[in-house]
Amino acid sequence: MTTVEDRLRVIEERQALQDVLTAYCTAVDSLSDIDGLLDCFTEDAVFDLSGIHLPRFEGQAQIRKFFHQVFADMSHHAHYNTNFAVDELSADQASCRAYVTGMGAAKDGRSVLVYVQYHLRFARTPSGWKIKSFSESPLMPLPPEVTGIHARG
C-alpha cells in the first residue's frame, strides 16, 4: 500500500513533467524564445522529427539551428497539448506522451495544421526535469505543408 506522501510525490512529479511540456509549447509559440525552448532540453537531447518526415537533431546546437529557421519562417504558432500520460517514472527518468494539435502560419502565406502525438523521455537534472528525447508521430494524415515549410532544418 502506498502512503499519502508517495501519492503526493507522484502527483508533483507528473505536474512537473507536464510543466516542461507546457514551457516547450509556450516557447515554440512565442516564435522568439529559443533560450526558453532550449532550457526544456538536456544538453545532449535528441529531437527526432523523422516520424513527421523532417530531420533528427542531436544536441542543443542543432536544435537551436532548426528553431532559429522555424522562427524566421513563421508568423504565428499555436500548440495545444492534451491526453498527457506518464508511462514510466523513476527517481531520475520518466517517459511520457501527449496528443498535440499544432497550427501555424508561415510568412510566405502558407498555413499548417497537424494532429500528432509527442513521445518524450525525461531526465532529472540539478535544475529539474528536462527532455532527453523528443519524437512525434502523426495521429491524422500529415499535410504537405509540414515538409514544405520546415524541410530546410
Description:
- By secondary structure, the chain is of the alpha+beta class.
- The protein has a single domain, classed as Roll (Nuclear Transport Factor 2, Chain: A), CATH 3.10.450.50.
- It is 35% helix and 44% strand.
- The chain contains 4 helices and 6 strands.
- The chain has helices at residues 4-30, 34-38, 59-73, 145-150, and strands at residues 41-48, 56-58, 74-89, 93-106, 111-125, 128-138.
- It has a 6-stranded mixed beta sheet.
- Strand 1 and strand 2 form a beta hairpin.
- The chain is globular.
- The termini are far apart.
- The model has no long low-confidence stretch (mean pLDDT 95).
Key terms:
153 residues, alpha+beta, Nuclear Transport Factor 2, Chain: A, 6-stranded mixed sheet, 4 helices, 6 strands, globular
- The helix content, as a percent range, equals 25-40%
Shape: globular
Which consecutive residue ranges, at least 5 long each, have pLDDT under 50? none
Number of domains: 1
**How does the helix and strand content classify structurally?**
alpha+beta
Share in β-strands = 35-45%
Topology, number of strands: 6
Calculate the terminal CA-CA distance, rounded to whole Å.
Answer: 49 Å
Classify the fold: give the CATH topology.
Nuclear Transport Factor 2, Chain: A
| Separate helix tally | 4
Gyration radius (Cα, Å) is 16 Å
Q: Tell me which CATH architecture applies here.
A: Roll
Give a quick rundown of the structure.
This protein has 153 residues and is an alpha+beta fold.
